[in-house]
Write a structure and sequence with these properties.
355 residues, 4-stranded antiparallel β-sheet, 3-stranded mixed β-sheet, globular, alpha+beta, 9 strands, 12 helices, Hypothetical protein af1432, Molybdopterin biosynthesis moea protein, domain 2, 12% strand, 3 domains
């Protein structure tokens, strides 16, 4: 199966994987022949990429690190927890907080188990989700990326759980920001942006009064800090930023740019990674960015890539620890169709992906 942009779909294309909502329900089933009204509806719903069937890629397997059901359950739990926090505000309800701690820890443990039991590199592209609110899906995605990165950095089990909880709750301060600002589709005013920038401190002040570890609160506090001091809310620099804060800085940005937003389409993983590399060493920890690259699928199975020798190819499968050098199936060269053949970029080191 092949991964294509929704804008590039044609009538008659056959959907190879179903499209889910954030409750885990199938909105569009696989094997459906796409019509113009269906394509237009997918565009309206903000679906940027879909998997379609074609002969060239029919044997390509799409792997999912996190099952559709686990992701849907996680999003649902985060949504209910955030709503309860919003409804109670800063009031201290020990029973509610105890139940919330149990719920969120359970989500994190399930994500850790799935990530650690999977021997392949992390990919989320295989699950095309439609979520009714960016905040909840983003929180789960950032938790998945943060757990994968902490795991690759060989953190202890307790540290991985802490970073997972911190990632799930890093944006909790946004529930105290007016929705009219959070969901605004046009450019924010200077005053509105300053309001948005209060969410790390709001999250910290809320979480530090709960039963969650204090470092979980610091994840909310520091995820917008940057190595060179250009971040907020405190403008911390270098090692004044906790290692969890450095992880969250990377995974929060990556999760944001590779998700659909009301004002722009999602980027592919390699485009998100280019943004991280652009700030590597100045905004983001260089070693962590490099490790993160090795933790995720940069070129998802089924995506079309351009090679430096003028060839175009479809990614067939991944090479672990060499996420930028997958196995690809070449189908054209210098815009001329050729008999398809597979090429392992881990062995052909003079050939690289350029687009």
């Amino acid at each position: 199966m092949r991964l294509v942009t929704t804008r590039g779909l044609r009538e008659g294309n056959e959907l190879a994987k179903p499209i889910y909502n954030d409750k885990g329900r199938i909105l569009v089933q696989s094997h459906v022949k796409l019509t113009r009204p269906i394509i237009n509806r997918l565009l309206e719903l903000g679906v940027t990429f879909v998997y379609i069937k074609d002969e060239l890629s029919e044997d390509i397997l799409i792997h999912s690190t996190i099952s559709e059901q686990v992701k849907a359950d996680s999003i649902h739990t985060v949504k209910s927890v955030f709503k309860s926090f919003k409804d109670t505000g800063f009031k201290n309800n020990s029973f509610l907080l105890d139940k919330t701690t149990q719920k969120m820890t359970s989500v994190v443990d399930r994500l850790i188990n799935q990530i650690q039991s999977d021997e392949q590199v992390l990919t989320l592209m295989s699950d095309i989700f439609i979520s009714d609110d960016y905040l909840f899906e983003h929180s789960v995605d950032v938790a998945i990326y943060s757990i994968a990165l902490a795991n690759e950095l060989k953190y202890s089990k307790s540290e991985i759980r802490e970073i997972g909880l911190g990632a799930l709750l890093h944006d909790i301060g946004k529930v105290f920001i007016p929705e009219v600002i959070l969901k605004k589709t046009s450019q924010l005013t200077e005053g509105e942006f300053e309001t948005i920038k209060t969410h790390p401190e709001l999250g910290f002040e809320y979480l530090r009064k709960t039963d969650f570890p204090l470092l979980v609160a610091h994840c909310a506090y520091q995820h917008h800090e940057r190595l060179n001091g250009s971040g907020y809310p405190r403008g911390l620099t270098g090692d004044k930023i906790h290692k969890y804060g450095k992880i969250l800085a990377i995974t929060d940005v990556f999760g944001a740019v590779t998700s659909d937003r009301v004002y722009r389409d999602a980027m592919l993983p390699q485009e998100g990674l280019e943004i991280l590399y652009g700030g590597s060493g100045t905004l983001f920890d260089q070693d962590m960015v490099r490790t993160f690259r090795d933790s995720i699928t940069i070129y998802p199975n089924g995506v079309t890539v351009e090679l430096n020798n003028g060839a175009h190819a479809i990614v067939v499968r991944q090479n672990k620890k060499l996420s930028n050098r997958p196995v690809v199936r070449v189908f054209s060269h210098d815009n001329e169709t050729v008999t398809p053949y597979d090429l392992d970029l881990a062995e052909e080191l003079n050939i690289t992906v350029v687009g």
